[in-house]
Amino acid sequence: MSLLFLCLGNICRSMLARGIATDIIQKQKLPLVVDGAGISSYHEGELAHPPIIALAKSHGIDLTPFRSKPITQKLANKFNCIVAMDDSNIRSLKELGISHPNICKLGDFGLGGVDIPDPYTYTQEKDFEEVYALIDLGVQNLLTSLHA
């Protein structure tokens, strides 16, 4: 089983979801592969947004091995499921002409269908922590649903 986490730039939400999922997968020795991508290629090759790196580190997760990359049809085809962070990401996939049989939203896993807010412009630590909590719970629920 493989999951591709998707957000706008692949430097905040999808990068954080990938890091959280990787941590859980390693600790629980799950047979699962995860990666992340962005709708935009603007940040291609970059590390996660510095406040997101710090946020993940404060939770014991290292994002520095990961680099941003844009979504392509070839990349999408390598994964069983694309997990978007918000409705806009799903619409953008269609606008880019990228199709996939299994596209879902992280907010559909125990979060009442919410969009995960983009923390790129946040400045308050409490706001980053709220996004972390949403992504962490969504990822935990998603992985549990796959291995229940």
Offer a few descriptive terms.
about 150 residues, alpha/beta, Rossmann fold, 5 helices, 4 strands, about 40% helix
What does this structure look like?
The structure is a single chain. Helices cover 41% and strands 13% of the residues. The protein has 148 residues and is of the alpha/beta class. It has a single domain (2-146), classed as Rossmann fold. It has a 4-stranded parallel sheet. Strand 1, helix 1 and strand 2 (33-38) form a beta-alpha-beta unit. The model has no long low-confidence stretch (mean pLDDT 95).
- Report the helical percentage: 40-55%
**Structural class assignment:** alpha/beta
The CATH homologous superfamily is called: Response regulator
Largest sheet: 4 strands, parallel
Q: Tell me the strand order in the biggest sheet.
A: 2-1-3-4
The CATH topology turns out to be: Rossmann fold
What number of structural domains do the residues give? 1
Cα radius of gyration in angstroms? 14 Å
Name the CATH class. Answer: Alpha Beta
Quick rundown:
With 148 residues, the chain is an alpha/beta fold.
Write the layout of secondary structure elements.
Elements: E1 2-7, H1 13-28, E2 33-38, H2 50-58, H3 73-76, E3 81-84, H4 87-95, E4 103-105, H5 125-146
Parallel strand pairs: 1-2, 1-3, 3-4
